[in-house]
Amino acid sequence: MPPADFEIAPLARLLSAYAGRDARRHRLLWALDRRMAALAAATSEPMIGQIRLAWWGQALEDESGVEGRGEPLIDAMRAAGIAPPPGLVPWLNGWEALLGDADLAAFAAGRGGGLFRALAGREDVPDWLTRAGAVWALWDLSGHGGDGDLAREAVDLARRHLPGAALPWPAAWKPLRIAFGLARADVAKGRRAPPALTAGLYLRLIALALRGR
């Protein structure tokens, strides 16, 4: 179990459990995403948020391992050999797109595409994976915060990103397939994500996990 500093959402913990031997890596990446979400939510001045996000990027990309040393999450990511993770730059840019006047398209492509690329463990991912990540990011955003108009806009944009055919998910990307499947079912019906892990969402996750591709 990760330390308290690396707290992640219950849904992320469940998804990570399907990553097999990569579960620890997945949990660390979800922990980074959670930190970025908290940073964006707590930022009232976009410039301050941009500086903080830039610091995370510079620290994770510092090959000397000096910058950011002592920050437990950065230290853990370095120890795991995933600093910087694939997709870091667009991932951080996606969160930056929420600072000030939200740019949902940039947020979706950056946060969703970058996070899914990091979880996949590759820079060279197919375009459909980036779009799947965008759908998931918009769905996830719709379940957080009290801005109903923003949530509806996020779901509407996610619907326009939905693929028209089944996606060719490799077995190694099972957690991503499940995450996208949860988002797709709600988005297709114009529904927001639940604000927390509900019994219904849990049962849907189990069903997707058992279904295979």
Secondary structure: elements and pairs:
Layout: H1 10-17, H2 23-42, H3 46-61, H4 72-79, H5 88-96, H6 104-120, H7 127-142, H8 148-161, H9 174-188, H10 199-211
Helix pairs in contact: 1-2, 3-5, 5-6, 6-7, 7-8, 7-9, 9-10
How would you describe this protein?
With 213 residues, this protein is mainly alpha-helical. It is 64% helix and 0% strand. α6 (104-120) packs across α7 (127-142), α7 (127-142) packs antiparallel against α8 and α9 (174-188) crosses α10 (199-211). The longest helix has 20 residues, at 23-42. The model is unreliable at 1-5 (pLDDT under 50).
In summary, what is this structure?
The protein has 213 residues and is mainly α. 64% of the residues lie in helices and 0% in strands.
